[in-house]
Amino acid sequence: MEKIDFDQLCKNAYSPQAGLIEKDKLWIEIFKMKEWYFIPRGSRDNIHPYIAEAKEISTGKQWVHAFTDMDRATFFVKRNGLFMEDNTSPIMVVPNNQELLEWLNEMQDEGVFGIYFNADGGGFYSPIDKLDAIKSHLQKTYPKDLK
Question: The pTM is what?
Answer without folding.
Answer: 0.92
